[in-house]
Amino acid sequence: MDARKYTGIVEDCCCDYETVDSLNEGVLHPLLQDLVRTPFFRYFKVKLWCDCPFWLDDGMCKLRDCSVCECPENEFPELFKRPIQYGLSSDDLKCQEGKPQAAVDRTLDSKAFRGWIEVDNPWTLDDETDNSGMTYVNLQLNPERYTGYTGPSARRIWDAIYSENCPKYQSGEICQEKKVLYKLISGLHSSISIHIAAEYLLDEARNLWGRNLELMYDRVLRYPDRVRNLYFTFMFVLRAVTKAANYLEQAEYSTGNLEEDLKAQSLMRQLLYNPKLQAACPLPFDEAKLWQGQSGPELKLEIQKNFRNISGLMDCVGCEKCRLWGKLQILGLGTALKILFSVDSKNHPNKPLQLQRNEVIALVNLLHRLAESVKLVNEIGPSVEKTVEEF
Length: 391
Ligand code: FAD
Description:
Strand content: under 5%
Order of helices and strands: HHEHHHEHHEEHHHHHHHH
Structural class: mainly alpha
Number of helices: 15
Shape: globular
Distance between the termini: 15 Å
Largest sheet: 2 strands, antiparallel
Bound molecules: flavin-adenine dinucleotide
């Protein structure tokens, strides 16, 4: 059997699966892996305790693995004062479980993350400017993985997303924009499932974590469209990042740790102007083809509303850690949508792209999540499929 199952061009993209895999393996994933570990990209500001705007909360998941370790108030200054910090020490990696909930130090924004403006995103409901209830989370201490969140609460969210906001299109559907929204959500869903399977609690008594390949196959690999949608979403977000290259190159990645901040800036440049990427896949997604029909503006408003609803649904996720990563990744997708569809620098040169710091952190972390999922599918997908077929 050919180990490579997915061949041909990734949908709406200019390069094929093989090229995406080799670029990801050799360039994108390693760069992103280093980037998300820098102080600028590892702290995400988030409101974790909001009421679900659509139905009465069905209660939070009480399992240990659902909870988020927050950053204590003094973490930022202390962390930034350390001379050089590549990666995290084992002390840092100890979960801060049981500590009192950290209040947000509101001076952090001006002390640490300088130079960023506050601006609205028409695609999401998240409002970074409203500080009440916001907290900072160190993403390196809270990896996206299996939490045990399952059952009716989780199912209700996915059902509401698919049935009310981005239904699976029928084969005759011609509206490209609706297809794009469905594929983005389905691709993100695949990525979440792959991370659950890649870091699964195999034995609770011994706290043994590892890969659950059966789950990866059952939820994603056995459905070729879910895998294709994952690659599509990866290319879509990559296009948004490279389209915003001028903005992202000049942005201020300052956290007070000069060495690490210069590293973040340099890695960002390597990602944005990568010669291998530009040669092999200069246009990962062609956004110019969308919203061209007569009903383009109304359609955009309709799809924007759907996406905002999906963003609001993240407040209904009944597991803190899933809510954290759900909010981050939906904000990342909303940022990609804003870059690709809400800024028209040709026709409106006076309205240049403006991004919030949290949007950039979400965008880059989302791209990293997707790159990792694509890497896992490419590396272990063929052997899992072979094993299943041999049974
Ligand atoms: P689900 O993954 O819940 O899927 C529900 C249905 O959606 C499936 O039956 C299928 O019809 C359809 N579907 C599944 N995948 C796709 C796809 N790729 N494209 C299109 N349709 C699809 N759990 C964790 O352990 N860790 C997490 O970090 C985590 N994060 C979450 C974040 C969010 C926003 C949500 C809503 C849930 C999260 N969960 C997390 C729960 C997890 O996603 C599953 O809901 C749970 O594990 C139960 O899985 P399931 O087998 O019932 O199928």
